[in-house]
Amino acid sequence: MSLSVSKLGLAAAQFGLDGMSASPRARSPETEARDILSIAARARLSVLDVSGNYGRAEQVLGDLIPRPVPFRVTLSAARADRGPDFVEAEARASLRRLAVERADAIIVPSPAELFGPHGAAVWDRLARLRDEGLFAKVGVAAHASDDPVGVARRFKPDILQAPASLLDQRLLADGSLQRIAGMGIEVQLRSIFLNGLLFLPPDRVPAQLKGASGRLSKVRRMIAEGRSDPLQAALGFALSRVEASAVLVGVTSAAELSAVVAAASSPPPDLDWDDMAIDDPVALDPRRWVA
């Protein structure tokens, strides 16, 4: 097993288990998810992040996850505005639906959750659940605009999930993730494909991102000239980051995960990473893209 592959984690939010619908000729989301989890287990991926899945989706995942569970399972905390009792009840319900007694981590989906009227009480409650052994770690997911270093200093989470990619190097270039890791906080990278922007052909780039199209074309050209491809380049960049203990990837099919594992198992391409970053504020924030 490649050390790079062991650093990979799997984000289950894209499995499509929420609606559980499929066209008559397509593989069902349940079948696809089972095969994805099987590939992930064989490849010894380290983390299974089930955040973004709730209720029925968690129940299905609980039926599909290989036993004994080969992953460090990460859950998402419920909305803090419902108060600590609700957050605790939902956390316990998630564990039951997944058929696990405990999980590796529970993640607050945004720092904004902690700055509301119930934020402090929710954070204290999650820390108590950690101390009781339901979770080994409590963490926060942050955007670059959330001041992740400030969040880390204030709340001292065990884990901080943050976006970083070949195109979005802001938190790496300014040393934020290095400082967070230096505090003894586990850093997990997410959004390493930046919603697939690097994979889109020029004629399919959303209209609001046209300002970044020239830069994207240059990056693709550099990757091709380096005898690589966008998938291998994106993975090679993320997996080479010493600041990160895990790199979370989202896939929608077993074929996609097989491609990811194969690319991660290959030697990283020899590319000028620093020259591939983009600075277009709209391109770097998928929340501002047109659907």
Provide an overview of this structure.
The structure is a single chain. This protein has 291 residues and is of the alpha/beta class. It has a single domain (3-201, 230-273), classed as TIM Barrel. It has 11 helices and 8 strands. It has helices at 3-6, 29-43, 56-64, 84-98, 119-132, 148-155, 170-173, 176-182, 213-225, 230-239, 254-265; strands at residues 8-11, 47-49, 72-76, 103-108, 135-141, 159-163, 186-190, 246-250. The protein has an 8-stranded parallel barrel, surrounded by 4 helices. The longest helix has 15 residues, at 29-43.
Specify the biggest β-sheet.
8 strands, parallel, barrel
Percent of residues in β-strands: 5-15%
CATH architecture: Alpha-Beta Barrel
Determine the CATH superfamily: NADP-dependent oxidoreductase domain
Sequence of strands across the biggest β-sheet = 1-2-3-4-5-6-7-8
Structural class: alpha/beta
Task: Give the CATH level 1 class.
Answer: Alpha Beta
How many domains? Answer: 1
What is the approximate shape? globular
Helix/strand order: HEHEHEHEHEHEHHEHHEH
Which consecutive residue ranges, at least 5 long each, have pLDDT under 50?
none
Question: Considering DSSP H and I runs of 4 or more, what fraction of the residues is helical?
Answer: 25-40%
